[in-house]
């Protein structure tokens, strides 16, 4: 199932992203499906985007507690490798944004400080 699971996880991310503003309930099921596929093949790239896009969906819904938990869990579960992937930088950046929007400025600064190198390196390589 290897690469096929990665493809299905990535496709679920895209489908959720496109449906996000209009159909939040269906999105949560699609994000759950993406997480299953990501975990099946240990796909950190796709997993990072699942965390970022699902968190943005929660932000659009105004769900502060859920989005903070989703981002926190996603950042904790990240396995940041030497490549410092775009997905890692995306999930951390959106987590910092969510903390800022929730007026958790000390936490936002702490997370940003902890992951600054990942964000900077990926940005400079983009």
The CATH architecture can be given as: Alpha Horseshoe
What proportion of the residues is helical, as a percent range? over 70%
Kindly report the average pLDDT value: 75
Cα-atom radius of gyration: 14 Å
Overall strand count: 0
Low-confidence stretches: 79-83
Task: Give the tags.
single chain; 126 residues; mainly alpha; Serine Threonine Protein Phosphatase 5, Tetratricopeptide repeat; globular
Please, could you describe this protein's structure?
This protein is mainly α. The chain has a single domain, classed as Serine Threonine Protein Phosphatase 5, Tetratricopeptide repeat (Alpha Horseshoe), CATH 1.25.40. Helices cover 83% and strands 0% of the residues. It is built from 6 helices and no strands. Helix 1 packs antiparallel against helix 2. The termini are far apart.
Please provide a brief summary of the model:
With 126 residues, this protein is mainly alpha-helical. The protein has helices at residues 2-19, 24-40, 44-61, 64-77, 86-101, 105-125.
Give the SSE map.
Blueprint (H helix, E strand, L loop, with lengths): L1 H18 L4 H17 L3 H18 L2 H14 L8 H16 L3 H21 L1
